[in-house]
Design a protein that fits this description.
With 366 residues, the protein is mainly β. Helix content is 1%, strand content 38%. A 4-stranded antiparallel beta sheet has the order 3-26-25-24, with no helix packed on it. Strands 4-5-6-7 form a 4-stranded antiparallel beta sheet, with no helix packed on it. The termini are close together.
């Protein structure tokens, strides 16, 4: 279900948030930039330089949703919500949730960090105990396969990407357990994963340190290519935190440390940068190109003036239409929803890490 038509919408001119380096192509007036890598001796700009781009905070928009929390019944033996880092509905109609056990880590914990719920919030199955240290990125692909990343490593666990069947069977593992690294066979704090319609998939790699890159793999896990390095220029990243894809096949990367979304072709060609959705921790794009961006970190020096919450808009134009404000937006740093998912009925789910909960937002009047 699509939320009610916006009134008013926030739709500033594209030039308000795109780089002056971009070139306007005549065909379709698409903003694009050649993705040639800078010379090896070029010095990257800092995240602080990137954050000085003048974009006015977008906080005052309608919120056509009612918040429901708590929602869903926890599995047996789990007494309270851990930090929720992923939530998506699968093609099978069930809701899959990824969380970080307790003490913000699954290392040595007995809980299963992946839980499948029906849409009434009843747990159906769970798995993954003993496999993760720091559950982070999460995605359910078009075949109902469940993907998850482990964004830290210790004691022979972590720095890996896993693919499971919808019943929890392990189908693929990438990366060396507990070993951070570079190149095609290792990750250093992989943050998210997304599967394209052709079965190829992308991994964002680097949570506050490490490789700061996006890696592309063939459907069977064969390494194909990568792009990115630390910095704030187009094609550079400071904590690439989230991935999703629109109906055109453009890859959206939540470049959280730089307070922007970067948009690429599937071959890594830079197309655009958007700052109007805040400091992106999570991204979800529906088949109809509605984009939902979870901002859990705009507080104090991190994106000054912006409030935390979920901004909703049009992935085709970049228009921001709605804002579900975090209930403690200007009080607690980094308290809001970090993960975001949307079901087939238009309900919005927020996975909250710091306050440890799963929020459900239902369109008002339904």
């Amino acid at each position: 279900m699509t939320a009610p038509a916006p009134s008013p919408a926030y739709a500033p001119g594209r030039a308000a948030w795109t780089s002056a380096r971009l070139t306007i192509l005549a065909a379709g007036s698409l903003l694009a930039l050649a993705c040639a890598a800078p010379a090896d001796d070029a010095q990257s700009s800092s995240a602080e330089d990137s954050a000085t781009v003048d974009v006015q905070p977008i906080n005052d928009l309608p919120n056509p949703y009612e918040r429901i929390e708590p929602w869903a019944r926890l599995p047996d033996g789990v007494e309270s919500w851990p930090a929720v880092t992923g939530v998506e509905q699968g093609p099978d109609g069930n809701l899959y949730v990824f969380y970080r056990c307790f003490e913000n880590s699954c290392l040595g914990r007995p809980e299963d960090p992946i839980v499948k719920f029906d849409m009434d919030g009843v747990p159906l199955a769970s798995w993954g105990a003993g496999m993760f240290m720091y559950p982070h990125g999460f995605h359910v692909d078009f075949e109902d396969n469940v993907w998850a990343t482990d964004a830290d490593g210790e004691n022979g666990i972590g720095h890996q990407v896993f693919k499971f069947s919808p019943s929890g069977d392990l189908l693929m593992t990438l990366g060396e357990a507990g070993v951070a690294g570079e190149g095609p066979d290792h990750f250093n704090q992989p943050t998210d994963v997304f599967v394209a319609p052709d079965g190829s998939f992308f991994v964002s790699d680097g949570h506050g340190q490490g490789n700061n890159r996006v890696v592309k793999f063939a459907p069977d896990g064969t390494y194909l290519m990568e792009w990115g390095r630390p910095g704030s220029e187009p094609g550079e990243f400071t904590t690439p935190h989230a991935l999703h894809m629109d109906s055109q096949g453009r890859l959206f990367v939540g470049d959280r440390g730089n307070n922007r979304i970067q948009i690429f072709t599937q071959e890594g060609v830079f197309l655009d940068e958007w700052r109007q959705f805040g400091r992106p921790s999570g991204i979800y794009i529906t088949p109809g190109d509605e984009i939902y961006v979870a901002d859990s970190e705009s507080w104090g020096p991190d994106n000054p003036g912006w409030k935390k919450g979920i901004r909703i808009g049009d992935a085709r134009t970049g228009e921001v239409r709605y804002f579900i404000e975090d209930i403690e937006s200007m009080v607690d740093p980094h308290s809001g929803a970090e993960a975001v998912g949307v079901d087939s009925e238009g309900n919005v789910y927020g996975g909250v890490v710091r306050r440890r909960m799963l929020e459900k937002h239902v369109p008002v009047g339904r």
